[in-house]
Amino acid sequence: MELIKTNIPGLLKDQKTRLIINNDENDFNRAKMAREQTKELSILKADVEIIKKQLKIITEKINE
Predict the structure, then answer these.
(1) Does any domain span residue 56?
(2) CA distance 63 to 61
(3) Taking a C-beta distance cutoff of 8 angstroms, is the pair 8, 20 a contact?
(4) What is the model's pTM?
(5) Rounded CA gap, 52 and 15, in Å?
(6) How far apart are CA 64 and CA 53, in angstroms?
(7) Does any domain span residue 59?
(8) Is residue 16, in this structure, part of any structural domain at all?
(9) Which run of H or of E encompasses 20?
(10) pLDDT tens for residues 3-50?
């Protein structure tokens, strides 16, 4: 695999496959952090929904 520099810093091009490869570690770390934050947010939303359902059940039992 022979990589050549492009006119954009951090991007390299594979001569054989003509694929562009992002070699910028900062971009990689930002993408990784964004992915982790999205996953955490999804978990938090699911937890909130569970708590809301449990509170509704508790409220209904108190009002009986």
Answers:
(1) yes
(2) 5
(3) no
(4) 0.63
(5) 55
(6) 17
(7) yes
(8) no
(9) strand 20-22
(10) 999 999 889 999 999 999 999 899 999 999 999 999 999 999 999 999
